């Protein structure tokens, strides 16, 4: 190769490497939003809003925290959610996010660590 072509080749290679690292850094810092989990949570909230607690109970883990029986789940749900929801049926509003979303970088780091 001629010296000029060699320098141009290395410049293009360097630029490509920098672009690859930049795009990789950007991609790993994008928010990960799990569509299945979001859909499931919206379905759960809509079932609670409509008063269909039996169907909502089928979506949960059914442990002591949420209620190991349907009656326990109904009692805990009515104690945790304002009674107005069960009488007037206004829409339930998201108050905020606790902890926020994780990035693809965090998911990759946890996957590599085996967690």
Calculate the terminal CA-CA distance, rounded to whole Å.
Answer: 49 Å
- Radius of gyration using CA atoms only: 25 Å
What portion of the residues fall into strands of 2 or more residues? Answer: under 5%
Low-confidence stretches: none
Biggest sheet: strands, sense, closure?
none
The shape, in one word, is rod-shaped
Mean pLDDT across every amino acid position: 80
- What oligomeric assembly is this protein in? single chain
Q: How much helix, percentage-wise, in residues?
A: 55-70%
- Number of distinct beta strands: 0
The string of secondary-structure elements, in order, is HHHHHH
Structural class: mainly alpha
In DSSP terms (H or I, runs of 4 or more residues), the helix count works out at 6
SSE layout and pairing:
Layout: H1 3-28, H2 35-50, H3 53-58, H4 70-80, H5 83-87, H6 104-112
Concise synopsis of the structure shown:
The protein has 115 residues and is mainly alpha-helical. The protein contains six helices and no strands.
């Amino acid at each position: 190769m001629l010296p000029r072509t060699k320098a141009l080749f290395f410049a293009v290679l360097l630029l490509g490497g920098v672009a690859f690292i930049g795009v990789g850094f950007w991609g790993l810092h994008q928010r990960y939003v799990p569509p299945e989990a979001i859909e499931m949570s919206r379905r759960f909230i809509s079932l609670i809003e409509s008063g269909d607690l039996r169907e909502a109970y089928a979506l949960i883990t059914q442990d002591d925290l949420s209620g190991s029986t349907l009656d326990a789940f109904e009692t805990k749900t009515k104690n945790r959610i304002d009674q107005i929801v069960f009488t007037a049926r206004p829409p339930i509003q998201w108050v905020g996010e606790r902890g926020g979303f994780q990035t693809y970088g965090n998911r990759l780091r946890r996957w590599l660590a085996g967690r």
